[in-house]
Inverse folding.
C-alpha cells in the first residue's frame, strides 16, 4: 500500500515547484510571482489534485504537475481579471496592475500561461493538454459572458450556471480530472470524479456569491455588494427576478449606484426568502457532489473530499 504523505508536505512540494516555474530574471515578473506564492489563498485546486491522487493511489508527482499547471492558469486569469474589473486589491494586497501598470500585469499573466504550456509539454499527454485548453477557453467565455449579461441585461439561471461553471468549477474539474487522466483511470471513476468537481465547484462559487451580498463584511475582510455594483445578478437576485420584483431589477440595472441600494437588495432578498432558496440550491449541489463519490471505497481522501463539499453549506468567508 502506498504511504500517505502529510498534506503539509504535499503543499510544500507544490509551492517549491510553483516557485521554480515562476523564476525570472525580470524583477517585476519575479515580484508578482513572489506575491502570488506568499499570498497563498485557500489552495483549493492543489488540495483537490492531491486528494484525487490519494483517492486513486496515484503518485504525488502527477498531482504536483496538475496542481501547478491549474494554479498557474488560475493566477494568470486573476491578473487579467483584476485589470478588466479595475480591482484595487487581490487577497488583501494592492492589485498588480495598480502597482506595476497594465503592460506588466498582462505580460506577467501571459508569462504564466507560457509556463503552463511548458508543463503540458513535459507531461506529454494529449488528453491532459486538451483538458487544460478546454478549461482556459471556458474561463475566457465565462468572463465575457458575465460582462455580456450585465451589458445587455440578459440575466437567466442558465447563463448564471455557465458563468459559475466557467469561472470556478472548470478549474476544480481540471485539478481532479487531470490527475485521473495522468493516472490512466477508467471512464467510470473518471466520470464520477468529474461530476463531483462540477457540483462542488458550483456550490463553492454560489456560496461565494451568497457571501458577497449576505455575508458579514468584517469576516469577509471587504465590503459586501461588490458583485451587485458590477451589475452581476447572482442566484438570490435571479430568484427575485423570477418573482417579478421590479425594484430588484432596477437596482441591478443601475449597478447599485443609489444610496442604500445594497441594503435595500438585502432587505428584498430576505423579505422574499430568496436567501433560503439560495442556501437550498447550494445544499443540493453539495449533496450531488457527495453522491458522485459513492462508487469509491471509504478512505481518508474520500472523507476529506466529502468534508470539503459539506463545508459550503456553512462557510462564512
Amino acid at each position: 500500500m502506498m504511504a500517505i504523505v502529510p498534506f503539509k508536505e504535499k503543499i510544500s512540494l507544490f509551492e517549491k515547484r510553483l516557485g521554480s516555474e515562476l523564476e525570472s530574471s525580470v524583477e517585476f515578473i519575479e515580484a508578482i510571482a513572489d506575491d502570488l506564492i506568499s499570498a497563498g489563498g485557500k489552495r483549493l485546486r492543489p488540495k483537490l489534485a492531491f486528494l484525487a491522487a490519494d483517492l486513486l493511489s496515484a503518485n504525488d508527482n502527477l498531482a504536483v504537475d496538475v496542481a501547478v499547471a491549474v494554479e498557474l492558469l488560475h493566477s494568470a486569469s486573476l491578473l487579467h481579471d483584476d485589470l478588466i474589473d479595475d480591482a484595487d486589491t487581490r487577497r488583501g494586497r494592492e492589485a498588480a496592475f495598480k502597482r506595476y501598470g497594465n503592460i506588466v500585469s498582462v505580460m506577467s499573466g501571459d508569462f504564466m500561461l507560457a509556463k503552463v504550456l511548458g508543463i503540458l509539454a513535459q507531461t506529454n499527454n494529449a488528453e491532459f493538454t486538451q483538458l487544460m485548453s478546454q478549461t482556459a477557453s471556458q474561463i475566457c467565455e465565462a468572463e465575457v459572458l458575465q460582462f455580456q449579461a450585465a451589458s445587455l441585461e440578459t440575466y437567466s439561471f442558465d447563463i448564471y450556471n455557465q458563468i459559475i461553471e466557467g469561472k470556478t468549477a472548470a478549474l476544480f474539474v481540471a485539478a481532479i480530472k487531470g490527475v485521473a487522466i495522468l493516472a490512466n483511470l477508467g471512464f467510470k471513476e473518471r466520470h464520477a470524479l468529474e461530476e463531483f468537481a462540477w457540483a462542488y465547484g458550483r456550490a463553492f462559487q454560489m456560496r461565494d456569491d451568497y457571501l458577497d451580498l449576505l455575508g458579514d463584511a468584517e469576516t469577509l475582510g471587504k465590503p459586501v455588494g461588490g458583485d451587485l455594483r458590477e451589475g452581476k445578478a447572482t442566484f438570490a437576485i435571479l430568484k427575485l427576478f423570477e418573482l417579478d420584483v421590479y425594484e430588484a431589477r432596477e437596482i441591478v440595472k443601475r449597478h447599485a449606484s443609489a444610496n442604500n441600494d445594497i441594503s435595500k437588495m438585502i432587505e428584498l432578498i430576505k423579505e422574499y426568502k430568496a436567501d433560503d432558496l439560495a442556501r437550498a440550491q447550494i445544499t443540493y449541489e453539495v449533496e450531488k457532489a457527495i453522491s458522485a463519490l459513492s462508487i469509491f471505497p471509504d478512505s481518508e481522501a474520500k472523507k476529506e473530499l466529502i468534508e470539503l463539499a459539506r463545508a459550503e453549506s456553512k462557510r462564512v468567508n
Q: What stands out?
A: The longest helix spans residues 187-214. The chain is about 75% helix and 0% strand. The chain has a mean pLDDT of 91. The two ends are 37 Å apart (CA to CA).
